[in-house]
Write a structure and sequence with these properties.
Layout lengths: L2 H14 L3 H22 L5 H16 L10 H19 L11 H5 L12 H6 L3 H13 L3 H8 L3 H23 L1
Length: about 180
């Protein structure tokens, strides 16, 4: 087990037991690793790196109950990141492949500047219900905007606008939490 795995797993386990500072530290360390992981794969679109980091952290937070604590945390988190990257490429109609073995690179990433984790539950809870549902449906479940809009009873265009506003609001809350 690597030092990163040991540290992240311990922090996540403490976070799952209700230790908020440990959970924030877990998300911060994971965010650092994710930035390096996505930056290497998104050299042509560095502006998308932070969006992918935030989407992945959000997914990790919302799906944390699906992680089997007897298994590797970093492998699970890497799988979430990998799927977020593939979804990003699909949305942009980019044809790329990722070897399944590249999780080793994820664990060995250089640490860029540290980031501060936030309570994602509170950030999501602060969104209006429709926006919260759209974020979950599109960014976590993987529904298309048309599908998510239909579930919410709104048009695809309205879903796109609402989702954009929700992500913008979440990003602003995260920036305020960092500062």
């Amino acid at each position: 087990m690597t030092e990163t795995e040991t540290r992240l797993k311990a922090l996540m386990l403490r976070g799952l037991e209700g230790d908020a500072p440990a959970y924030r530290a877990c998300l911060a360390l994971l965010g650092t690793r994710l930035r390096a992981y996505f930056a290497r794969r998104m050299a042509g679109a560095p502006g998308d790196v932070e969006d992918l980091v935030q989407e992945t952290l959000l997914a990790v937070h919302l799906k944390r109950s699906t992680w089997d604590s007897s298994q590797s945390f970093t492998a699970w988190a890497h799988a979430v990141a990998r799927y977020k990257l593939i979804d990003h490429w699909r949305r942009r109609k980019i044809r790329q492949t990722l070897p399944i073995e590249d999780h080793i690179e994820f664990l060995a990433a250089d640490e860029p500047e540290p980031s501060v984790g936030i309570e994602l539950d509170r950030a999501l809870a602060s969104l209006p219900e429709r926006q919260r549902i759209l974020v979950s449906d599109v960014k976590l479940t993987g529904l298309s905007l048309a599908e998510a809009g239909a579930r919410a009873g709104i048009s695809e265009g309205a879903a796109k606008v609402a989702l954009h506003r929700a992500l913008k609001a979440l990003a602003e809350r995260m920036r305020r939490a960092d500062g």
